[in-house]
């Protein structure tokens, strides 16, 4: 029986859609694709997620590596907060789940500065019984250790737990540890997926 519901943050509870953001500043789709590959999918970005580099240092490194994109890099790193908007249809489920007796957790790759920002901005964080944020413990999903860290820290039985994430590799890793999973995509109806696992919602 499900007792624990574990949420990813990015693109499950809080939007992170860099391509939509960049489209405000350039209509050049190739340029956006390249930007995403060079910046968001870079090793430096993983260091941000892992909490071993600051946003300021990453911004400076990216400008040195891609001077031709200085302007767009500055816009991106000076306005990243604007991308972090709530996914209300999912956030609205949290109170309901909590009052139905479920314990709620966050397991997310998240840059420290961004986590501090969303925690201040959205009042749902007090509903959670526990949080594991990659930037705080220097481990990132889909590494097995971060899932084990969560299970041990909060003494969770994996078989009583469901993990919701938009990234397939993270879902697969959770499944290997016997955690039940929901692969969340933009059109997923989270309420009905939870009901399939007999969660009262
Ligand atoms: Mg995500």
User: What is the β-strand count?
Assistant: 5
Helix/strand order, N-terminal first: EHHHHHHEHEHHEHEH
CATH superfamily heading of the largest domain: HAD superfamily/HAD-like
- What characteristic shape results from the CA principal axes? globular
Q: Give the radius of gyration.
A: 18 Å
Percent of residues in beta strands?
A: 5-15%
Mean pLDDT: 97
- The CATH first-level class of the largest domain comes to Alpha Beta
CATH architecture of the largest domain: 3-Layer(aba) Sandwich
Name the features.
single chain; binds magnesium ion; Rossmann fold; 11% strand; 201 residues; 11 helices
Brief account:
This protein is an alpha/beta fold and 201 residues long. Helices cover 48% and strands 11% of the residues. It has a 5-stranded parallel β-sheet with strand order 3-2-1-4-5, sandwiched between helices.
Which SSEs are present, and which pair or pack?
Layout: E1 4-7, H1 18-22, H2 29-40, H3 43-50, H4 55-65, H5 70-78, H6 88-99, E2 103-108, H7 112-121, E3 130-133, H8 134-137, H9 144-153, E4 161-165, H10 168-176, E5 180-183, H11 190-196
Parallel strand pairs: 1-2, 1-4, 2-3, 4-5
Bound molecules: magnesium ion.
How does this model look, in words?
By secondary structure, the chain is α/β, with parallel strands linked by helices. It has two domains: 4-15 and 84-196, HAD superfamily/HAD-like (Rossmann fold, 3-Layer(aba) Sandwich), CATH 3.40.50; 18-83. 48% of the residues lie in helices and 11% in strands. It has eleven helices and five strands. The chain has helices at 18-22, 29-40, 43-50, 55-65, 70-78, 88-99, 112-121, 134-137, 144-153, 168-176, 190-196; strands at 4-7, 103-108, 130-133, 161-165, 180-183. The protein has a five-stranded parallel β-sheet with strand order 3-2-1-4-5, sandwiched between helices. Helix 4 packs antiparallel against helix 5. The longest helix is centred in the first third of the chain and has 12 residues, at 29-40. The protein is globular, with a radius of gyration of 18 Å. The structure holds magnesium ion. The site of magnesium ion (MG) has 7 residues, from loops.
């Amino acid at each position: 029986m499900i007792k624990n519901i574990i949420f990813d943050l990015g693109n499950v509870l809080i939007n992170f859609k860099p391509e939509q953001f960049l489209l405000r500043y350039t209509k050049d789709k190739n340029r956006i694709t390249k930007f995403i590959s060079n910046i968001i999918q870079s090793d430096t970005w993983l260091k941000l997620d892992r909490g071993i580099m600051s946003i300021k240092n990453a911004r400076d490194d990216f400008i040195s590596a891609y001077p031709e994109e200085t302007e767009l890099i500055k816009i991106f790193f000076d306005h990243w907060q604007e991308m972090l908007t709530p996914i209300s249809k999912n956030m609205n489920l949290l109170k309901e789940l909590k009052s139905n007796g479920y314990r709620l957790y966050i397991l997310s790759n998240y840059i420290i500065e961004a986590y501090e920002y969303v925690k201040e901005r959205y009042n749902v964080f007090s509903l959670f019984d526990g949080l594991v944020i990659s930037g705080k413990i220097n481990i990132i999903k889909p590494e097995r250790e971060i899932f084990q860290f969560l299970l041990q820290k909060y003494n969770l039985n994996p078989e009583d737990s469901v993990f919701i994430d938009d990234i397939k590799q993270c879902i697969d890793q959770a499944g290997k540890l016997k955690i039940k999973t929901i692969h969340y995509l933009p059109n997923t109806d989270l309420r009905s997926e939870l009901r399939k696992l007999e969660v009262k919602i």
